[in-house]
Amino acid sequence: MSIFDDRRYLIPFRSQLLPQLFTDTLIIGGGVAGMRASIEAARHGNVFVLTKGPVDLSNSQVAQGGIAAALDESDSTEAHYRDTMSAGVGLCESDSVRTLVEEGPGEIEWLMESGMRVDREQHGKVALGLEGGHGHPRIVHTDGDMTGRELMRSLCAIVSRTAGIRLFDRCFAIDLCTDSNGRVCGAITWHPKYGLQVIWARATILAAGGAGQVYRETSNPRVATGDAIAMAWRAGAVMRDIEFMQFHPTTLYIAGAPRHLISEAVRGEGAILIDRMGNRVMEGRHPQGDLAPRDVVTRGIVEHLARSGDSHAFIDARSMGSAGFANRFPGLAGMLAGFGIDGGTSLIPIHPAAHYTVGGVQTDLDGRTNLAGLYACGEAASNGVHGANRLASNSLLEGLVFGRRAVLAAVKDSLPDPVPIRWESRVRTVVAGELDLGDVRSSLRSAMWRNVGIVREGAKLRDCLDMFSFWGRYALGSVFEDPEGWETQNLLTIGHLMTRAAGERRETRGSHVRTDWPEMDPAGAFHLAWKVGEPSVSRTIVRAEVAST
Question: Which side of the chain, N or C, has fewer Cβ within a 10 Å radius?
Fold first, then answer.
């Protein structure tokens, strides 16, 4: 059994009695899922919302493409359902996808009625864009490529005028509190002003996003360190399909620069992928060409670069012209201008990078986990919507739909008040040499990118597990005083979970590519799931469903 399976390795901190706070609902995470959940939860009691960084620092905030929903009369929820199921390569849960596409349009209408601006055509109709994997234009967007910013502005505005919501920004959730029966009843937190605290809650909702920062090359902001998933694992929650990390095919590739996302909406407007010789990268690879699902395009780029020996490919959006590109994608145009690139007249250098954590904490259709009192939604959750590869622009929609549903489930469950205990840290810590956190973090991110990245192979996965075990012996039992250390412990846990799961899935499916197992498992599509202390994973076959036409 691995050191990562030892329940005594809750994150240790200095032994001391902790101040205590009480609330009805504790929401960990302030992106779209957390904010939507908080608005619904305030209708049923008091709410605490914790955000690790500033409220405006999340994947939701920087989302470019938009929100997918069947709003046009020529579109349908059935068509959206089929596209989502197809992108998920056999691992989507039918009931979850139907819930997403059928409840999604109502969430969009609610947002617009609540004050969110969306781009419209001249006669006032909502303008709808096209992205990879979609068979119909159904992407609602704002100011071209600034949908996330406007979505979060409107949700935060609703939160600010809603009584009963208390927001703690820059507050780090260290670990979940469980009682003697395994019920989750709150969390241990740290705030730079208030220090360590216990927040007791009837219901705890994890909405703290994914783990993109476990990779050296990522489009994710610095806060995406998988904290919610890691703390749920330590508490005994079931993890599912954590091997699936979606790599976005097009992020800016400039030496020394962050991997800024280049939305596939650019390709939806007619841009194409080419190499340095002008050859089409996706030529003959998929019926949808440059607008194929993300896993297909990512693999197409990587294989093309391997054959050509080039370090990167290009987006060619020159058909839009300088004014056209800037008008449709003002945020991208401004970002590219900072690197001396005019997106409408110059080629844009790109390479895939880690983008979205597809698997996570296993939940049912209403966000319930296997632990009483604990719910999850958004990128931290595995609720069956995304399968093996998320369909473009379904993530913001998922946060809206399932953030609300998690709260309704908690209300329906009629959870009792937590019974406070005299909380004191007595976790035994290891005695080890001093750690260089920056070096450990950099090394683990590089190891993940090289060995558990876009293309994987069994021997490399085993070597990577050995590396994590070595680092874990020193880092998991060490006492840290601030979020940097706790984040490093969480990244080690996430890296181990992803690597272990990737080794167990001996097939190629969606965003998980094994060179030593290049075909899909002929026995059928299955979920991989396990929890702390269990020596092996469990397989659950996904029931196939044929979408009606």
Answer: C
Q: What is the rounded distance in angstroms from the CA atom of residue 150 to the CA atom of residue 395?
A: 15
Residue 316 Cα distances to 130, 304, 534, angstroms: 17, 16, 49
DSSP H stretches of helix in 206-264: 227-235
**pLDDT tier at 13, thresholds 50, 70, 90:** low
Q: Measure the CA–CA gap between 363 and 409, rounded to whole angstroms.
A: 11
Owner of token pair 């009625």: 113
Sole residue written with tokens 């597809």:
358
Average pLDDT, the chain: 90
Report yes or no on whether pTM surpasses 0.85.
yes
Coil, strand or helix at 68: strand
Residue pLDDT, tens place only, 259-313: 888 988 899 889 999 999 999 999 888 888 898 888 889 989 999 998 999 999 9
Alpha carbon separation from 154 to 42, 56, 105, 175, 388 (Å, rounded): 17, 12, 17, 30, 31
Residues contacting 458, CB < 8 A, separation 6+: 503, 506, 514, 516, 517
CB-CB neighbours of 101 under 10 Å: 27
Is pLDDT of 346 > 80?
yes
- Which amino acid is located at 176 in the chain? L
Q: What single-letter DSSP state applies at residue 365? A: T
**C-alpha span between 29 and 399 (Å, rounded):** 11
Domains annotated for the chain, with CATH where assigned, are 40-244+358-413 (3.50.50.60), 246-355 (3.90.700.10), 429-523 (1.20.58.100)
List the Cα angle 435/436/440 in 5-degree steps. 95
b or e along 303-337 (b: 16 or more beta carbons within 10 Å of the residue's beta carbon)?
A: ebbeeeeeebbbbbbbebeeebbbebbebbbebbe
Write the DSSP string, 293-327: -HHHHHHHHHHHHHHH--S-EEEE-GGGHHHHHHH
Identify the band that residue 547 occupies on the pLDDT scale cut at 50, 70 and 90.
Answer: very low
What is the structure's pLDDT at 232? 96
Residue 546 reports pLDDT greater than 50: no
How many CB atoms are located within 10 Å of the residue 383 CB?
A: 29
Catalytic residues: 294
Q: At what angle do helices 483-504 and 458-475 cross, to 10 degrees?
A: 150
Contacts of residue 493, defined as CB under 8 A and 6 or more positions apart, other chains included, come to: 4, 226, 230, 233, 234, 476
Pairing of strands 67-68, 20-28: unpaired
176-211 pLDDT, tens digit per residue, is: 999 888 899 999 999 998 888 999 999 999 999 999
- Mean pLDDT across 541-548: 56
Distance of alpha carbon 235 from alpha carbon 500, whole angstroms: 19
